[in-house]
């Protein structure tokens, strides 16, 4: 199985091929514009000049952005050890490169339509300020998204809990963080909420805590010690999937007609199938013990 570093290197090799094609296209475009542009009829000169200038600006900008991106990724891979590489850093670099490329495309279109970018920007300053004011929430989310991407507190694949939501981080975008919860539902959490709320990162604790809260009716056959022995026997059969020393069973409340109990264990693995199996078996055991007492 490829490591994170190997996967990043594989993706970078494909990007280098695309970068080489951009450079060749740029060189060919310069050669054609210098050698053959004057051969076209004079009435087409302005349109062709704008088209070629726009393409040259786009390719030159894209090449510079790619060079900067390659340098940052190479610096990051050399600086970080294999265990400390986080995929979201590369994700942040890609998003910034994409934003700059979009700006380059817009300026290239202005050049093609013979619009001077500086004059255009100065003429829409008031409109741009109004748009920024109306979309301040989106801008805040985008900035927060970049902060999350370049932070090493959260990364793709981490198990986190935010408020009532918990699951594995599947993706980080400029607007939200996408997590896959225990029901295999994709939950999108706004970046601003993620930075302002209390976040528990179970992956950084090297543990995965499971909690089971249940209620048993009071009757003369109720024996907490027997329930404890029955669940411990099941925990013992689960072997290395559960840290045997983390088992805790306690009564959280004694009501008029029932007793509320809480069971906690910690997994030794983050495999989703193993977690589902442990949950299913413990739930079945709790149901069986509860029915025997009724």
Descriptive keywords:
single chain; 294 residues; alpha+beta; SH3 type barrels; Alpha-Beta Plaits; 3 domains; 5-stranded antiparallel beta sheet; 3-stranded antiparallel beta sheet; 9 helices; 8 strands; 18% strand; elongated
Describe the structure.
The chain is of the alpha+beta class and 294 residues long. The chain has 3 domains: 4-116; 124-205, SH3 type barrels (Roll); 207-293, Alpha-Beta Plaits (2-Layer Sandwich). Helices cover 57% and strands 18% of the residues. The strands form 2 sheets. Strands 4-3-2-1-5 form a 5-stranded antiparallel beta sheet. A 3-stranded antiparallel beta sheet has the order 6-8-7, with helices on one face. Helix 1 (4-36) runs antiparallel to helix 2 (45-79) and helix 2 (45-79) runs antiparallel to helix 3 (87-112). The mean pLDDT is 83.
Unreliable spans are: none
| Oligomeric state of shown chains | single chain
Proportion of helical residues: 55-70%
How large is the share of residues in beta strands? 15-25%
Using the alpha-carbon principal axes, give the shape.
elongated
From the helix content, strand content and strand pairing, which structural class follows? alpha+beta
Distance between the termini: 50 Å
How many separate helices?
Answer: 9
Quick one: biggest sheet?
5 strands, antiparallel
Secondary-structure element string: HHHHHHEEEEHEEHEEH
